[in-house]
Amino acid sequence: MSEPSDSAVWLASVEQRYSARCELTFPAVPTLLNHYAEILEHHFESLGRPMTDKQRTGLLELLGAKLTEAHASGAQSNVFVRYQLDRGSGEIFYEIASAASSLEEEYEYWVSQRVGSLFGRNPDARVLELVGSKSTNLRILDVGAGTGRNSIPLAEAGHQVVAIELAPALADVLQDEAESRRMSFPVVCGSALDPDLVIPLAPFDLVIAAEVLPHLRSVDEVTRLLTRLAALSKPDASLLVSVFLSHAGYQPSQLAREAAQVAWSAFLTPDEFMTACANSGWKAVEQQPVLTYERKRALSWPPTSWYESWTQGHDAFKGDDPPIALQWLLLSRT
Fold first, then answer.
1. Of the candidates 279, 127, 280, 285, which has an alpha carbon nearest to the alpha carbon of residue 207?
2. What is the CA radius of gyration of the chain?
């Protein structure tokens, strides 16, 4: 029988005395279960503790359950994996926990850390053009009003504006800004998807939902929102939305959809969006690429440092030609 090499002898001896502590954070993308498990296996193997088939099965079951749980709570949720290599026993112990994070919580963190404007200080050029083409003194519902970059200029122009904002932190900023300008219009804090949310001044002549649909995670959610907005609108009302649409012919995978949600860039195929419109009482009458339109007409450019990359789909798809882009869609009641 051959003698083990010196290096093998001392390596085995030293490995027994390893100790380690580590925490990894994974975005809640259930489709990446196997990829995340491979990362953990590499960690353990690098410490001289390769997993058995039984251990691997147990890891996949627990990690999969926590990813599903976190994903159901929100697109920005995470899963934490903490492991410890015990010097005494030489075994690796780990725990996996899901950490829910809502959109409201994400925006609260943004507000607490922000320097300057979160979304740009000027209104969307498409909004100004659309309102300018209509009569004065419109009733306008601004869904996902944020800090008021559209609501405040529209109210200053004499329109009857109602702002809906999901995140209390953003609604507070909007309210403070309006008061600092000695303006008064309803700011409703809540979800437009909530059928019990009381929204004054309905029905509306015009509804705006800029940068709202990229947070919705399914065709069903989009349909529910469009249906709710139709119920709040006059028979001849218009609805302006911005939505990420995939390029013609692109067949998205589940991984692509989940990863885009994490990047605040949830998208639909053109057919999915048109189906949502048809099932909710709207029809599309005009489509414009957001980036092209706003770059030519914006009061200042770019609105934010992240705007160009995000609207082109680069936050979700790295590379030269992302398969999605943000579009302006003008809809009318059917």
1. 127
2. 25
CA pair distance 78, 100, nearest whole angstrom = 7
pLDDT for 168-226, tens place per residue?
A: 999 999 999 999 999 999 999 999 999 999 999 999 999 999 999 999 999 999 999 99
Distance CA 115, CA 73 (A): 28
**Single-letter residue type at 6:** D
**Residue count (the chain):** 334
CB count within 10 Å of CB 181 equals 12
Point out which residues pair with 27 in neighbouring strands: 78
Q: Among residues 139, 150, 118, 120, which one has the least CA distance to residue 233?
A: 139
Look up residue 189 and give its amino acid. Answer: C
Among candidate residues 330, 230, 260, 333, the one with its CA nearest the CA of residue 290: 330
Q: Please state, in angstroms and rounded to a whole number, the distance separating the CA atoms of residues 79 and 99.
A: 6
pLDDT attached to residue 4: 55
Spatial neighbors of 196 by CB under 8 A, at least 6 apart, are: none
Alpha-carbon span 219 to 275, nearest angstrom: 9
pTM: 0.91
Closest CA relative to residue 104, chosen from 9, 209, 191: 191
Return the H-helix or E-strand segment holding 273: helix 270-278
Spatial distance between the Cα atoms of 128 and 180, rounded to a whole number of angstroms:
22
Average per-residue pLDDT in the chain? 93
Phi, psi of 70 (to 5 degrees): -70, -40
Asked whether the beta carbons of 133 and 121 are under 8 A apart, the reply is no
Q: What is the pLDDT of residues 54-104, one digit of tens each?
A: 999 999 999 999 999 999 999 999 999 999 988 767 789 999 999 999 889
Structure tokens at 197: 């949310």
Question: Which of 128-142, 212-226, 242-256 has the lowest average pLDDT?
Answer: 128-142
Consecutive H or E run containing 72: helix 53-73
